[in-house]
Specification:
Largest sheet: none
Strand content: under 5%
Order of helices and strands: HHHH
Helix content: over 70%
Distance between the termini: 68 Å
Shape: elongated
Number of helices: 4
Oligomer: single chain
Length: 109
């Protein structure tokens, strides 16, 4: 019992392990989480301009797919929390990009 309390105290004192409760590395999940956050930010920011609808809609679509797969294989609360933030930003950017012209607007038609 004492070893578990000491190990738990050591693990929770590190700021990098915020909400990462199992203490194991998750490189694939962390990569998907970071990619989803970056794609979500790109989609959300570029959705503010009508002429960047191709970038915002494609970044949003890829961010939604990446985030959905990341949610499927996520292991900790930290990963799930940040994936939901990235998924929300990706979805908003995707929907606004679709409203401004879509995935192929003006290129194919």
């Amino acid at each position: 019992m004492r070893r578990q309390a000491t190990a738990l105290r050591r693990q929770s004192s590190s700021p990098a392990s915020l909400l990462a409760t199992d203490g194991k590395p998750h490189p694939l999940q962390d990569t998907l989480m970071a990619a989803t956050l970056v794609l979500g930010a790109v989609a959300f920011i570029t959705a503010m301009w009508h002429n960047l609808h191709l970038l915002s809609s494609w970044a949003g679509l890829v961010g939604i797919i990446t985030g959905a797969y990341g949610q499927f294989i996520s292991a900790t609360t930290r990963e799930r929390f940040l994936l939901i933030i990235g998924l929300g930003a990706s979805a908003v950017g995707f929907f606004l990009g679709m409203a401004h012209g879509g995935l192929f607007g003006g290129v194919l038609g």
